[in-house]
Amino acid sequence: MSEEELISLAFATIIGGFENVTALTALVIDEAVRFRSTETRLAVDSADSGSLPKLVREIISDVAPVNDALRRFPEDITVNGITIPRGETVILSLRSANTDPARGARPDLAFGRGRHFCIGASLAETEAIEALRHVFLRWPRLRPTKERSELALRHSWLTYSLAERIRRLTTCHCTLEQ
Hints:
Order of helices and strands: HHHEEEEHHEE
Strand content: 5-15%
Helix content: 40-55%
Largest sheet: 2 strands, antiparallel
Oligomer: single chain
Strand order of the largest sheet: 1-4
Structural class: alpha+beta
Number of strands: 6
C-alpha cells in the first residue's frame, strides 16, 4: 500500500469505527423511542432472537447516518451522459440514495456495497442492537420530550447525527412515565 492509501485506510477506520457508529446508535435509539416504541418493546421481549436485529436493520436503512462516500475511478466513466475523467474525485450521497422514496427495490447503501462495503458493518449493527436492547430494558417507558425537528444536528459533511449529547437521563429530552 502507498502512504496515501494507508492514511486513507486509517482515516476510514477511525471515522467509521467511532463517529459513524456513535451517530448510528444514537439515531437508532431515537427512531425506536420516537416512532417504533411498541414494535421495539415487542422485539426486545420476544423469544425470537432474530426480531430485534431485523428491526434494527430496518431502522438503520431509514436513518442512514453516513452522508457521503468519496470515489475515484481508474478509467473514464459515463453516467447519464456525463463523462467523469479517470482519477477525478466524485462525492456520492449515500444518505440521499438510501432515503430516496424513488429508490424502490434498489439495495440498501447504509453500509456501502460491493468492494466498498463497510468492514465493520456487523460490529456496528451488533452495537446498535445491544444498545437499543439495554436502553429499552433499563428504561421501558422512555418517551421523547422534544420533536425531532427541534433537535440540533451536527454540522458535518460526513455523518448525519444528533448534536445534542446525552449526559444524564434528565437532560436527554426524554421522560420516564411513572
